[in-house]
Design a protein that fits this description.
The chain is of the alpha/beta class. It contains 22 helices and 20 strands. Bound molecules: iron/sulfur cluster (SF4).
Length: about 600
């Protein structure tokens, strides 16, 4: 391994292509192991060379790194339709996907059908012609210390990010409307045009007003240039976050890159790296450089690692250094467990399942042992300083979220929520964007109350919930129990849902679990959008129903949230080209297909 000593530190890099240099941290500790893993992960022969980085000693970076593209030659990951760009008000290209629907068969009246557009978060991975490795393009970003999105919104400025997310939220509904009118499809036009005419498109200025009012956030660190911005707030489409990351019992951190791309393929709006195992920094760095969507972390996890795994050895100083390092690396939002106070811990004594948040449990142990106040609460002003400098959005963590429906909506949970409201207001004074995290396990009658209380106590800041799971007996299927609660709380106004996978409570999810969890939660989020009347959300449903009633199987697959799964299930019993035109499927068969009978019902009269 080539290396160079600078002062007392040895530096090294690997290089696959002269223009794509990958810088590595000082070659000590895990770095040697990481060099080896990295070479295996990304394949090919790397030429290693010395690299001088005296100004950023101990800083570990991938830069302009080639990322393995799992979309390449993997039909299951291929996004539907073709990439399509619209221009933002600032002239940036905003990626969407165009779904070209097939014509209505002559037997059903014969008509053209419009092109439909959906948001695209797959970055360069899903691009036609991309190979087995990709390099993420970078956007221009202000230097750290510039005005945050919130500060600029308050000053009346529409930022490039506000324009970008406005175009992304609109998903080219204007283009869809034009395509619908041009199709001459009278039946579809009569049904959809009234809906389209009620929609007021997002503009950069309308987004700015939401950011300035602190009812929405754009998590976009100054140090994450690979990011394509997204907006999170109750007036926008409901977003879904996917978690992954290593644990001490998962040794293969390379799988996390695969999971990231699996999540993007299913439409993850943000991702969180929750690594607690080996190579925390390396895994995070790889995810940041590989992610076109906002990346979140829980800095307390790395604090624990740097404290040698002992919660009682954690200090504010260690946390501060971790937060600053993560902010400098480009993390867009961070879960901060500053609302869990020493007085709240006693409120959990009678709980059935105690404290189930990892970060909450660590802080509770620390406070109880030292009989001291939460150092994150005591140093919150310094946390705000770091967040403002890098424009990191704070996701104020719910360390006391309930871990069972017995504990749902208890005093401890709402006492912490009240403190989160106080912290949210303090963050607003420093121009720091905030989301509020929520539960957990909540029985159905109590789900909406969480959204109501959050809006009341936290001034309508974007709410970000885990599920909630509406029953405790779903082991193996908790993506379903959580998606039920997710749809309910989304309909009540929650801005972002954190997905849950079938492995919840049982083990670390693999990429298959990521797919199941993502699809369940994209469905929950979409159902919530339909319930809330989010402009344009219901159009996809109507197009799907139209395709279903006309037995346009290819369009049904394209409009489904998981097209590959829909096609696979259909083709199990009716494979081949002829079955793609059949006026039935194997569920009811040709003689009993009610859709077919419904068509025949009025045949004599027409
Ligand atoms: S056979 Fe049954 S399930 Fe299949 S298309 Fe007809 S109505 Fe639908």
């Amino acid at each position: 391994m080539a290396s160079k000593r600078v002062g007392g530190t040895v530096f090294s890099t690997v290089e696959k292509h002269p223009s794509h240099r990958i810088r590595l941290r000082p070659a000590s500790g895990n770095a040697a192991l990481f060099h080896m893993l990295f070479a295996v992960h990304f394949g090919g022969a790397y030429r290693e060379q010395a690299f001088l980085c005296a100004g950023r000693a101990r800083q570990f970076l991938f830069q302009d790194a080639m990322m393995q593209n799992y979309f390449f030659e993997n039909a299951d990951l291929q996004p539907v339709g073709e990439k399509f760009y619209v221009r933002s008000e600032h002239g940036e290209s905003v990626p969407l996907r165009r779904i070209r629907l097939t014509d209505t068969p002559a037997c059903f009246g014969g008509a053209k059908n419009p092109d439909f557009f959906i948001p695209d978060v797959t970055g360069p991975y899903g691009d036609a012609g991309s190979g087995d490795t990709v390099v993420l393009p970078c956007r221009q970003r202000p230097v750290p210390g510039s005005g945050t999105q919130l500060a600029r919104a308050r000053s009346g400025e529409v930022t490039p990010e506000m324009s970008f997310v406005a175009a992304r939220e609109n998903a080219n509904l204007e283009g869809f409307k034009a395509s619908l009118l041009a199709s001459g499809n009278a039946k579809l036009t009569a049904r959809l045009l009234p809906l389209l005419e009620r929609i007021e498109p997002w503009s950069g200025e309308r987004v700015r007003r939401q950011i300035a009012a602190r009812t929405a956030v754009i998590p976009a660190s100054f140090c994450h240039p690979e990011l394509e911005p997204t907006v999170i707030g109750r007036h926008f489409t409901t977003k879904v976050n996917a978690n992954f990351g290593t644990s001490s019992s998962s040794k293969d951190w390379r799988e996390e890159g695969r999971k990231l791309q699996e999540a993007l393929a299913r439409g993850a709006d943000t991702v969180m790296d929750l690594s607690t195992g080996q190579c925390i920094r390396e895994t995070r760095e790889m995810i940041l450089r590989a992610s076109p969507v906002p990346v979140g972390t829980v800095p307390l996890y790395e604090t624990l690692e740097r404290a040698g795994g002992d919660p009682l050895a954690m200090t504010w100083e260690i946390f501060r250094d971790v937060m600053e390092d993560q902010a400098r690396a480009g993390v867009d939002y961070m879960t901060i467990h500053a609302g869990l106070l020493e007085a709240h811990v006693e409120l959990t004594r009678q709980r059935l399942t105690g404290i189930v948040s990892r970060g909450g449990g660590m802080m509770a142990r620390w406070m109880r042992s030292f009989r001291r106040e939460n150092f994150l609460y005591e140093h919150f002003e310094e946390i705000l300083e770091i967040a403002r400098h890098y424009d990191v959005t704070l996701s104020l963590g719910d360390g006391l979220r309930s871990g069972s429906i017995y504990d749902g909506n208890d005093k401890a949970q709402f006492a912490e929520l009240k403190t989160l409201g106080e912290l949210n207001r303090r963050a607003g004074e420093r121009d720091v964007q905030v989301m509020i995290e929520g539960p957990g396990h909540i029985p159905m009658p109590g789900v909406a109350l969480n959204s109501v209380k959050e809006a009341e106590l936290c001034d309508d800041a974007p709410f970000y919930t885990l599920g909630p799971l509406v029953t405790d007996i779903g082991a193996g299927y908790d993506h379903i129990t959580a998606a039920i609660g997710g749809a309910m709380i989304g309909a009540a106004g929650t801005a972002m849902l954190c997905y849950v996978t079938p492995k919840e409570h049982l083990g670390l999810p693999d990429s298959k679990d990521v797919r199941e969890g993502m699809v369940a939660f994209k469905l929950a989020a979409h159902a919530a959008d339909v319930a809330r009347g989010v402009p344009g959300a219901i159009l996809r449903d109507h197009l799907m129903s139209d395709a279903r009633f006309e037995f346009r199987w290819a369009d049904q697959f394209s409009l489904a949230l998981d097209p590959a799964r829909a096609r696979e299930y259909h083709d199990v019993t009716l494979p081949g080209a002829a079955s793609q035109k059949a006026h039935f499927c194997s569920m009811c068969g040709p003689k009993f297909c009610p859709m077919k009978l419904a068509h025949d019902l009025f045949d004599g009269e027409n």
